[in-house]
Amino acid sequence: RAEVTQKSDGLYPVYRTRQHAVTQEEMVSLLEQLLPAPTSVTIPVETKADWQQSYQEWLDDLMEQQAWVAAGKPQDGVDRDEAMMSAEEIDRISKEYQRLIAEAPEELETTPVSDFSGLKLNEGARVYELADGSKATVEAMAYSSFMSVEVFKGCSGSGYIYYQYTHEREKALGEVKPFLTVKMDRARAEEALQRELDRLGFSDFTVSRAAPANLCVRGRNDGQRPQSAGWGFQLRRSYGGYPLSAVSFMDSRALLYGDQDALAYNRPIPDEMLEIFVDENGLQAIRCLNPKDMVSLESENVELLPFEQVQMRIKNSLAAGMDAAKLDQPIPCTIYRLLLTPCTVRVKDSDDYYEMPCWVVFFTWNDGQADLIDNPQVMQEALIINAVDGSIVHGEYGY
Questions:
Q1: 367-380 CB burial, b ≥16 within 10 A, e <16
Q2: Residues 107-150: tens digit of each pLDDT
Q3: What are the strands, taking DSSP E only, across 10-62?
Q4: From edge to edge, which strands make up the β-sheet containing 273-279?
Q5: CB atoms within 10 A of CB 198
Q6: pLDDT in tens, 46-63
Q7: Residue 215: which of 139, 170, 125, 280 has the closest Cα?
Q8: Integer Cα distance of 207 and 356 in angstroms
Q9: Strand partners, 129
């Protein structure tokens, strides 16, 4: 029997939303709330030493390939003789590295500043020296299908949140990376998180996933080492108190959604999300991804399709996927969870979208793997069905 999760009060609102273009003023305001005043800023670029190290790493890899070919041995199941670059290609890449080394600066240039007003979209990461002597890396990006504002305290390069479950999975695969032990318990981390959400104006966001994590820094000079141990939280706007998934899910690769041309105009904006890292000193990192505006409440309680019809739609969709694959015999399919939660559906020929109730159907083609439920390490396969009209919703393209 599949677990069924839905709202306890039985009310299903529908919101009209649209992508929010973050302004310069909003970026500056967020930074002023998060960080002490800056005293200087550095724009990280590759220095001569960085490019020389990259060049040497490339040469080392090239020599390893040549040694394998000379020994007549394949590597990783690949015939290295066939994969080996020609002398002309090696010469071209060598000259390109030499050009980059010659044109790169000896050292990074630091500029005095008194505020964050110089931060611009799509200009890469900036490292700020702050009035309290600490550093923070800030980056703001905005493209047609992606927008983010990212702040990492204590990092002299672009930061990232490295989750314990990712570390354990990589360690099991033989990849050894440093990881600081997380001693902070979740209750204290969530208390600190809620204080920060209220202060920053994000109180309408709800935790969709939480796990022990390290705040790490990218960049050759920092060696990708962890800076702090704490908790990483992923949060989504609650949109009327719907239950949210604690795991990531993707559209089923086994199902059909129509041809590409018919789907293009329904491409929705990506999910709005906050990713926050909290340690003993409070909020240390925040990523604001794909912010949205709630334009209006379209319905306080939309009428949903009867559940029996939803079940039939699920059955037909999965059967159609198997038929399209032209299988010799049906594959066992286990449905282990049905979650009624808001998903983004685009309004045709518009920049507006609906946040409306949809059934997310978690399933696996391999019988007996229902232990995937709420496993944060696995991107789970799902079928998404509009709970109002029964249409299949494609998370990347819309209907």
A1: eeeeebeeebebeb
A2: 888 999 999 998 888 888 899 999 999 999 999 988 766 788 99
A3: 14-19, 38-42
A4: 110-112, 38-42, 126-130, 135-143, 146-153, 282-289, 273-279, 226-237, 205-217, 159-163
A5: 10
A6: 889 888 988 998 898 888
A7: 280
A8: 19
A9: 40, 135
